[in-house]
Amino acid sequence: MDRExxxxxxxxxxxxxxxxxxxxxxxEDLGREMIKQKALDASRQVEIYLAxxxxxxxxxxxxxxxxxxxxxxxxxETGYTCLYEQETGIMRSHTNPELxxxxxxxxxDKLPSWWKIFEPSLNGSIVGGYYDWEDADRxxxxxxxxxxxxxxxxxxxxxxxxxxxxxxxxxxxxxKIMSLEQKxxxxxxxxRRRAEQLRAINEMGRRISSILSLDELLPYIVNSLRxxxxxxxxxxxxxxxxxxxxxFKAGAGGYTGSVPVGLSLKLAEGIAGWVxxxxxxxxxxxxxxxxxxxxxxxxxxxxxxxxxxxxxxxEVKGVLDIESSELNAFDxxxxxxxxxxxxxxxxxxx
Length: 350
Description:
Blueprint: H1 3-52, H2 65-71, E1 74-75, E2 79-85, E3 91-93, H3 112-118, E4 127-134, E5 140-149, E6 155-162, H4 168-209, H5 214-229, E7 233-240, E8 245-253, E9 264-266, H6 270-278, E10 282-284, E11 304-312, E12 315-324, H7 334-344
Antiparallel strand pairs: 1-2, 2-3, 2-6, 4-5, 5-6, 7-8, 7-12, 8-9, 10-11, 11-12
């Protein structure tokens, strides 16, 4: 990705995050207004019903199913309205039958954040605010409650629900934006790492051209590649034209034993042997699923392997074999894969 493209992407992410923040704030405001309006609507409906039925005794309210239906209305997924008395704080209609005719003063010490909002309403004041509540999964979540008087009576209507019910869509957007941010950050790190690797490769190429001794050149190559790309093992095997065998000539990495210089493989034996025979590279991101893989005790921790032929004038001279102790260690992206091959074949064997 070029600098301009990265700038646009990063700014799009920043704008998206700002939009999500604004959206969340807006939806929370909308949620509060909906709860307030629900309390006002239920209060007005209760007022009309009680005016039409003036003889309903307080202790009989919970038995009047029509009044209960008016007083207890759903809000969103889990919210509701309820009806209670001023001053006494006795609940008269509620979604939870155990709270009907219950003195809410009993919750003063048990639920202090709720009581702090509820208590001021007992004198008939309009009150609203947030409090913490334990949901069915025993998670503490924020609720918003709004309480209004039923005009001309000693009753109050409260409306309450979890405020995050109104924020789900924006939270999903925020989650997606955070995921995009992470991807942009990972991509930026990868680009920076590749730029550093390319600089190291160019330097390696300059150094290689000045090394005349193969015995000096091969160890330099494997050590440089391992340090540049942080590979687990980097090996060079050269083809003996007379015997047709591949011989291990240089290696750098986390071997379980000594570096197996002199180890020989038959042509077509193992991944490296197959690459030498065919002249084609081979990537195995899980060697346990690769039939061509051959277990070697010194490379016992190998999980992934990438091998490429070393060619001079189109003729295979050997194999550069790179191993990792992690599964799926090598990038299968076509450009990255070709870059590996270019690195492997730029080593200047003559």
